[in-house]
Amino acid sequence: MSVHRIASRYAKSFIELAEENNKLERIKEDVESFHSAMKSRDFVLLLKSPIIHNSKKKAVIKVLFEDKFDELTMAFLNILVHKNREAYLPDIAKEFLVQYKIFKHITTAKIVTASKISDEIVATIQQKLESIQSTDEHVEVVTEVEPDLIGGFVLEFSDWLYDTSVAHKLELLQKEFKDNPFTSQIIVR
Predict the structure, then answer these.
(1) What average pLDDT does range 46-63 have in this prediction?
(2) Cross-sheet strand order for the sheet of 153-157
(3) CA 55, 91, 145, 102 torsion: positive or negative?
(4) Are 99 and 12 spatial neighbours (Cβ–Cβ below 8 Å)?
(5) Measured between alpha carbons, how far is residue 69 from residues 12, 22, 62, 87, 111 in Å?
(6) Do strands 138-145 and 160-163 pair parallel, antiparallel, or not at all (unpaired)?
(7) Directed axis angle between helix 41-48 and helix 54-65, to 10°?
(8) Which domains does the chain carry?
(9) Cα angle vertex 112, ends 172, 102, to 5°?
(10) Contact 13, 99 (CB under 8 A)
(11) Minimal CA–CA distance to 78: which of 96, 97, 95, 57?
């Protein structure tokens, strides 16, 4: 079975369990914290190591998260470690966050601009995106600054990419000139 399939099944089960216990928002916060802990390479290597015994892994998870996480989250983590599925925890956490957005009908839109844009512009874009049929009920807008765009913006959401950047237009223009079979016959006298 593929890693994505395993992660997807555990994430879906965990979302359903959290929803049944009316703790979905609390569990989401725990998963976000756990997902950010995955940025530590040493922690990920510890979880994936076949040499380190499960009891040590459980002890490390307990020390790191017990007083910060809900008991449901801790029980879920302990079950995964007990079943030797701890190597999949980074993928399960990532998939949980993806499925949470699907469950809550949230579309994430990414706006890349050459310079920082104001909160009013972000709010206006968010309202426009919420009014179109290509997005879910709620839109979460993430902004990023990339000076190489020169001007304009790039908007990504779902399977859509809308690129109005100056850099993209220059690239298209360069390609058009490169592929142009016309050769100039102008003679300078």
Answers:
(1) 94
(2) 138-145, 106-113, 153-157, 160-163
(3) negative
(4) yes
(5) 19, 15, 10, 20, 32
(6) unpaired
(7) 140
(8) 3-102 (1.10.520.20), 105-178 (3.40.30)
(9) 115
(10) no
(11) 57
Distance CA 58, CA 45 (A): 14
> Looking at this protein, which amino acid is placed at residue 25?
E
Of 164, 166, 153, give the one whose Cα is nearest residue 115.
153
Encode pLDDT of 2-47 as tens digits. 999 999 999 999 999 999 999 999 999 999 999 999 999 999 999 9
Amino acid symbol at 119:
D
pLDDT tens, residue by residue, 106-155: 999 999 999 999 999 999 999 999 999 888 989 999 999 999 999 999 99
**Long-range Cβ contact pairs of 79-88 (< 8 A, separation 24 or more):** 80/10, 81/54, 81/57, 82/54, 82/58, 84/54, 85/6, 85/10, 86/47, 86/48, 86/54, 86/57, 87/47, 87/48, 88/3, 88/6, 88/7, 88/10
3-state secondary structure of 161: strand
Residue whose entry in the numeric block shows the structure tokens 């009920």 = 137
DSSP class of 152: S
Q: d(Cα 80, Cα 152) in Å, to the nearest integer?
A: 46
